Amino acid sequence: MTKIKAVIPAAGLGTRFLPATKAMPKEMLPVVDKPAIQYVVEEAVGAGIHDILVIIGRNKNAISDHFDSVPELEGRLQQKGDHGRLERVMKSSDIADIHFVRQGEPKGLGHAVLRARTHVGDSAFAVLLGDDLIDDRETLLSDMIAVHERTGAAVIALMEVAPEQIHLYGAAAVEPTEHDGVVTVTGLVEKPTADAAPSNLAVIGRYVLPPAVFDVLERTGPGKGGEIQLTDALQELASEPDGPGVVGVVFGGRRYDTGDRVDYIKAIVQLAVEREDLGDELRPWLREFAARL
To answer: Where is the Nucleotidyl transferase domain (predicted)?
Structure first.
């Protein structure tokens, strides 16, 4: 497997979770007992990536603090003999080689990815968005890296959604390939209406991109919402006859959407009921609670 780096954009304002995100980055909201961004970092590490760049903005220092060591806390847990919690605390500081760069002003996902150019250099890289948590039993990112190595294309993760939900996502126009679950992407539309969507295949927050995307982003102007959209740059790559092209990996596995409040709560419940230390106590309570509704 080619050694690549990962980029995690984390400079958004998190307005859907106000007032909780007034002073706390949305990426640090706990999902059971870990911040959401730690799940994303662990996914990258699970795919063999150990060099990770996090794009942060103002008031995001809690993210870098989380991945730093805390000698006072670690020493106290060591003195108490609380080795289980000590191991979990130290994991976040030892998990990977994590770097940070500021976006400055949140000008869109495309702008955030462009901020990674100096760190990434002339190599392919993965982009992982923190709103989508992929279950650690899935191999989506590793599969996408393998597809990129085989094709040289930009690789995006796609998932079938209900037509009435497609306006929340980028939608892909696709053609089949000889490989099951892999499609050629011929076009992308950012958050279309159901009538205008080319398919019900939604772009979810995983990408493996060639360095050529940086040159495209440099000349990509503001798009939908007045922001520089990564979707617009990928659309250009898909339409270039001599370019690397764009390929989609269709994912049908376990994904937890933390992008809005209801889905965030669902993600916590789904992950908690499968935990060995929580599930046995939580499942009977959930059944009893649901019966009262």
So the answer is: 5-271
φ, ψ for residue 111, nearest 5 deg = -65, -40
Burial profile 73-96: b = 16 or more Cβ within 10 angstroms, e = fewer: eeeebeeeeeeeebeeebebeebb
Contacts 24+ apart (CB under 8 A), 173-178: 173/198, 173/199, 174/198, 174/199, 174/201, 174/248, 177/247
User: Residue 269: how many CB atoms within 10 A of its CB?
Assistant: 13
Determine the number of helices (DSSP H) and then strands (DSSP E) in the chain. Answer: 11, 13
CATH of domain 5-259: 3.90.550.10
| pTM as predicted | 0.91
* Spans of all domains in the chain: 5-259
* Residues contacting residue 146 through CB under 8 Å, at least 6 positions apart: 1
Phi, psi of 79 (to 5 degrees): -60, -40
Residues, the chain, total?
293
From the number of C-beta atoms within 10 Å of its C-beta (0-12, 13-18, 19+), residue 170 rates as buried
Distance separating alpha carbons of residues 11 and 113, to the nearest angstrom: 11
* Residue pair 66/92 in contact by the 8 Å Cβ criterion: yes
pLDDT digits (tens, 9 = 90+) for 213-248: 999 998 876 667 667 889 889 998 988 877 789 999
- Angstrom distances, CA of residue 44 to CA of 29, 40, 145, 194: 19, 6, 11, 33
